[in-house]
Every structure is written in C-alpha cells, then in structure tokens.
Amino acid sequence: MSTQSEQTLENNLVTQLAGQGYERVIIENESDLLANLKRQLEKHNKTKFSEGEFAKILNHLNKGNVYERAQILRDKYNLARDDGSTLYINFIDQVEWCQNQYQVTNQVTIEGEYQNRYDVTILINGLPLVQVELKRRGLELKEAFNQTNRYQRHSYGSGVGLFQYIQLFVISNGVNTKYYANNRKQSFKQTFFWSDKDNNLITPLEQFSRVFLEKCHLSKMITKYIVLNQTYKILMVLRPYQYYAVEAIIDKVKNSVHNGYIWHTTGSGKTLTSFKASQILTNLPNVDKVVFCVDRKDLDYQTAKEFNSFSEGSVDSTDNTHKLVKQFGDTDTKLIVTTIQKLNTAIMKDRYKSAMEPLKDKHIIFIFDECHRSQFGETHKRITEYFNHYQMFGFTGTPIFAENVTGNLFGKRTTKDLFGECLHKYVITDAIRDENVLKFSVEYISTFKQHNVIQDIEVQAIDTKEVMEAPERLEAVVDYIIANHDRKTHAKEFTGMFCVSSVEMLTAYYDIFQRKKEAGEHNLRIGTIFSYAANENDKDADDGIAEETTDVSGKQINLHSRDKLESYIGDYNAMFGTKYTTKDSQSFYNYYNELAKRVREKQVDILLVVNMFLTGFDSPPLNTLYVDKNLKYHGLIQAFSRTNRIMGDKKSQGNIVCFRNLKQATDDAIGLFSDKNAKDTIIMEPYESYVKQFNEALANLKAIAPDVDSVNQLQTEEDEFLFIKAYRDLMRIYNVLVTFTNFDFNDVAMDEQEYADYGSKYLDLYDKVKSNRQTEKVSILNDVDFELELIHRDEINVTYILKLLGQMKDAPEPEQETRKKNILDMLSGDVQMRSKKELIEKFIQENMPLLQSGSDVEERFKEFWKEQDKAEIERLCSEEDLDSDKVKKLISSYLFTEKLPYRDDVVETMNTKPTILKRKTVSQRVLDKVLDYIKTFIDGAPE
Questions:
Q1: Residue 260: strand pairing partners
Q2: Of 647, 662, 682, which marks where a domain is finished?
Q3: What angle do CA 206, 207, 208 make, to 5 degrees?
Q4: What are 177-217's pLDDT values in tens digits?
Q5: Beta carbons of 93 and 191 less than 8 angstroms apart
Q6: Is the pTM value of this prediction over 0.85?
Q7: 337 in Cβ contact with 307 (< 8 Å)
Q8: Which of 130, 139, 172, 325 is the least buried, fewest Cβ under 10 Å from its Cβ?
Q9: Do residues 804 and 777 both lie within one domain?
C-alpha cells in the first residue's frame, strides 16, 4: 500500500472540516483574503462597510507584532463612520465564543521575501487564526514545525500582515498531530498533543480535528485558554491537562459549593494552570474575590515573577498585611496573590477585624499552591472558621494519602480530608510519556571504600551515624563528585544540587569542598544555604524534608550554625562581589533570592542544601541531584523532580546519584504517586541497555553508510536524509551513555575516532543544507533539525586544543603527524570548533616549527590570534567597504543584547549605501560575514 500523500491528507482535512460546519472558501492570495475579511466582519458585526471605512479597519489591524495583534484581536475597535457616527467593531466574540464565523481554505499563496503557499488555513470572522501544516506519513513532525518558522520569517508579515494574527499552529503527518501557540521563541519541545480528560492522547489527524478543531472548542481555546504573557510579549497556550483542570474548577464554582484539588505532577506548569483558573474565575458574576496563596519563601523569587508575567502588577510581594486588607476591601480588585502568612495575619489580628468583617459572607475562592506543604496547619482551620461562603482549591504534585500522611497539632489529615475530591489527575508517568518532564537516571554509589575503590551498590544498607558521618566517607563522596561532575553535567553545561541529612553534615561537606578547592583539586563554584534556627535538622520529617524557613526573627538561634553560614556567605560575597549577611533577616532573605537566581543562571555549579530548594524550586539547567539523605514518598519525588525539567536536546534525563540505599524508598514513592508498575516508565534503563541500543543504532547507520568515506557516495537527498536520521539517533543514545559513571568506548562497537569522523560528515551535510537555505534552494533537507547541541562537546575548546598542540610539539617526531591529524579531525567533528579549524591549521603550519617547546604554544598562539583577529576585521571592512568603528559597535551591541541587528543597522555600517533593490541582498551578505567573524574569533576565544 502506498504512503498517503500530503495532498490527499490536505484534501481529506478540508473535506472533514467542511462536514463539521466550516464554510469552505477559495482564497488564492492576499487580495482574496482581504475581500473575504470585509464580508465576514460585516456578517459578524451585522453591518456594511464602505471602502473608506474598511481601509480604516485594515489600517488598525496592520499594526505591531504577533503579541500586539493578539491584543488587537481581543479588543474592540471604535470605527469612525462616513456619516460621522461611531461603531464598535468586534473581531472575535470572547463571551459567546461559539457565535463567530468559521471558514476553511487551503493553498493560500502570499508573496513576501519569497513566495510561500500554506496548507490549510482556518479563518474566524475572516482572520486567519489557525494554520495547519501537513507532512506526508512517515516524515517527522519537526519538519512541519520548522516550516512554520520559515513562513514566519519570510511571508507572514507581508502585505497587511494578516497571517501575523495566527493564534495557533497545528502540525500533522496524519498519524501524529500537535498544536502550539504562535510564539517564535519556542522550541519543538513546546508543541503538544491533545488528549481526553483521562490523559489518553488523541494523535491521528482525523480524530484530533473532530475534537480539537470542533468550532466551539477551537474558539474557546483561542478566547479563553491562550495566555498573553506580558513580560516576554509572547502567546502561550494551555496543554490539555491544564485545560481540563481549569474546566473542572470552573464547573465546581459554577454548579456547587464544594472544594477540590488538582494533582498535577511536579514540573507540569501548575502556576500557569492556577493563573488561568484565577483569571477566568474573577470574571464569573457569582464570585467576589479570588485569592491565590503561596508560602512566603515561594512568592518573591518565583511565583511573583510568573504571575506578574501573565498579568503585570497582579502580585504584591511586600510583607505589608495592611495592603492585603485594603485589596480585600477594594471592589475593583478581583484577583489577589498573597502569602499564607499575610492571610493568617489579616484574619487573625484584631486591628484588621473591622475591615475584614464585611467579607465574611462574600463568595471568595481560595487557591493554594503546593497545598500539601502549606495547608496542614492553622491556615486551613482559620479560613474555614472565618468565612461563611468560601470555596477552596489546592494544587499539588505529590498529594498526601493514608500511606504518607504525617501528624501535626491538628492530627493526621490527607489532601482529600482537607480539600475533598481530586478534580483532575496528571501524574509523572503521563508527563514523561508526553515529554513534558524527563525520566530519572538513578545510580547507587557505595558510601565506603573497599579495596581502595568506591563501589556501586544495589542493596547495601549502612545507616549508622558513626559510619555515615565518618570523615573518610565524606571525603570519598566529595572525591566522587569532583571526579564525575563534569560527566554528569556535560562539562558543566548543566548544574547540580547536593542534599544532605543535617546542617552538621552540610558544614562538614562544605569545608571539604573548600579545602580541596584551595588545594587546586577542583574549580567548582559551591553555594549553600540553610536556616540557623535551633534544631534545624530533619530527623522528625517523615518525608525526609522538614519545613525550613528564611525567616529566623524571633526564633532561637543556633549560634554555631549561624557562624558557619556567615562564613559561607562570605565565600559567596568574595565570589560574586556582594555584601550579604545573616545579621539581619532582610539581607539573609535577599541572599536566598539571589542565590536562587544565580543557580538558575548556571553561575553556581553545585548547591549544597539540607531542606531548602528541595521543593518548589524550578531551575531547568539543574540536571543532577547528589543525595546523602534519607528521603521517602512525597519528599523523595519532590527532591528528585528538581532535575527533570525539559531543557533542549542534550538534557536527556535527570541524574540522581544516591550515596544511601534509597532503592526501596524510590520504588515505594513511584508506586504511590503513579502505580507500582510504572518504574520502567520513570527510571532510565540500566547502562547495559543503552550499550545495546547504541550498537543497534550503529548497525542501522552502517547499513546506510558502511564506513565514513561512503557518506560522500550517497546518491540522493533521500539517502542523505536517512544518514542524518541514523547518526542523530546514535548521538541521542551516546548523549545518555556518557552520563553513566562507567561509560567506556570499549563497551560499544566503534571507537571514539570513528564516532567523531561520522560526526564530521554529519556536519558537512549541515553546512550543505545551511547553504541551501541561504540561497532558498528547494531541498527535502531544509527542514531537518540537526540537533546541533548534541554534537557540541564543551571539553573541546581552544584551551584544550592548545594543550594538545603543546603535547604534539613535545612528542617524538614520528608521532607528530598522527597527533596533528587527530587534532584536525577533532576540530572537524565539533560544531563550534569547525569555524576555527582553518585558523588553527594555519598556526600549526606557520608557527609550530618555530617554537622551541610545547610550553611556548599558548603565548605564541594568543599573539597569533590577535594578529588574525585584527587582519580579519580589516579584510571584512575593506572587502565590503564598511566603517570599522561602526562594525565593532554593531558586534558589541549584538553580543550584549544577543539579538540579531536589524537590516538598517547593518546598512548603517556601510560607507556606500546600496540601492533599495539591492539593500536586502547586500545587508544579508554582510551580516553573514559578521556572524562568521564572531563565531571564529569571539565565541570560545582563548582566555
């Protein structure tokens, strides 16, 4: 049976949508699009427009970027009519979202920088709000994603720019179908499958279209479930489980007086879900206030930022309860984001009694973030006793069940006891399947030495205080971390966290790290924080994570711990030029917030903690957790989940390195929070399995290209495409393999040199495709994602190459040619070092023979680098007749902002300005040369 063609897929979709009530319309170009828009807006607004009036509407619509147009779409336009009257024009009905005009068309051709023809376009009230791009069965969805990105660059802004009103993209190859918001900053990782409310995926195009593209549902997604992020000026759309959770909460508020909770696994975007629920609830007529509550330590540095990004100014992160009480009394303030601490104070203190009294009978919705941590105390009791007409909803990634319930002053109460039924569930197995979070790779490392080596253990139970805190053991653990941290974090491209059982152990570990750093044994940047209240250890915590606070005012102080922390903050101050202290609580709190920020920005390599940051802390670059602490149930899942946020292709899993036997505790936690058979879904397979997968992928690669030279003999682009896919599959498995402590190329069926040589050929094809893209040559390879970050090896940099050149110089003469070839092959096989290969080759030929020894290489190379840098700038400016000062300014601006310069900025560097007709071509050529210069001489320059 032949593969279904893209055209057949397209025709079937248009026919299906017409059967679902969409009006089928033929629109070939922008002229047709505008004529249809006029008719549809007239129909939607029940009026007729003169040509002059419609010109005003088009002028109003043709403003701004995608984000600004999304705002225009949702606002009404006050049209000044020819007869002097005014009329509010509605572009989309957001209240009665089914009351819009729906059409479908295909093969619309738009002339931009290049002519583009789009597959299937869904028009609502004449505006193209949904674009569907299709690929034939068997092709990767990523190709359709890349194609929409190319259309965004080339033609969506052409003419009146109506295609910049697209709110949602849908991509499909018939078998798999995904959707995503119109946001050029996102990656393919931010494309989503739709599902039913039980999280069963709906992937075939026909089924997806029947459910997701149903007219009312589609316009509901656009009008209700797209978020306009004000900080980043981008569109975001809810994933299906977020949609069902919000719908469930709204249903409870509209149709009952009951409470409920949402169980969405850690890392699944609870803040966005809770924000959207809060936003929609504030618009319900029977709701007086919506109060979103978090713990104080979570508000300032994270939730405040995220809530404010969705709705600027929605969060008051001060400690001023008076302001909160004022918000409660203000009828115009429907949404309040506050802390549990301030809420407690507002309803407990006599001085706020008169202001709060009138609210007792108001319909107030309370939404609690991470409800299992914050709600098992006084707040819950006080709210239920104080307000008469409240509803309460909790969000948690790890609910409290009978199996993991702990007691407090109010007894043992589960999440269900406090909030009622679970309204929607999306557990870790769902999130891993949907690629919304990563699996965990768990290694158990022996905590003692046998025969002078640290041995891996599966079920070694050594847990006495004397053994666990023995200086020899702590030393061995630190040595292990120093030896393996680069491997675990891909040469510090990611970061780590180390959680330990007590402040006493933390100080011992920190001091060992610091001593070894001063001795030159490592250059890791270690940061730490812990509370210095008395009895701050976690021995009473049943989950392994005790409550730890940044507010120590009024608490008994452990002076020894405080002195230690003051010393460690001193190390931090020396490292970053700051002036934090434990001597006043505000400075300590500011240190807490800045430390969190630096961890997220990868300025701290390992964060050493007891309890802090093990729950609620979100840092995508964090990929490794070292554990010397007894964790279980929700504490274990919460701590492990610090590592499994999605971030690019190189981050393939969250690494957990256990120096204690947590195997049974891990199995128990997985069983409780997913099901007992879910272990293989959540935990990565053992090392041997990936060795086997690597060898299978290698056999597939060699079936296409038996040896490195045969890549050059591939006859067609289809053959090249197969090779690219095969080597990319091999890279993905290699990327996982290298994070295992015991990885060795002797375990797989190829050596490191052959792997790198195939990589060079892979990059040759990338260069060819890049050249095709720049000339707009039609090629089936143009939309292939090469996943270049997987082929970049951080350890191969200029400094490393200089070290090899020094060794080459000092090697016996017969060896030197072999070493030279290996170095040049290495440069060819790394995506970032290829640009420097020609330069280093020139240095080898012209300078190496003149040097006396390997110790002279570094100094001479730096002189050579400066000479070549200066010569390259002069050559570039001479060749293109550019002003060198303006070029340097352009480069500085690009490096500072990390944004490509506008065409006018490039033209400004030219001494002789090109004609309007040639301006685009010339400026692109100059920009390409400037970027090549930056790649060669600035990125990864010798220090």
A1: 393
A2: 682
A3: 95
A4: 999 999 988 888 889 999 999 999 999 999 999 999 999 99
A5: no
A6: no
A7: yes
A8: 139
A9: no
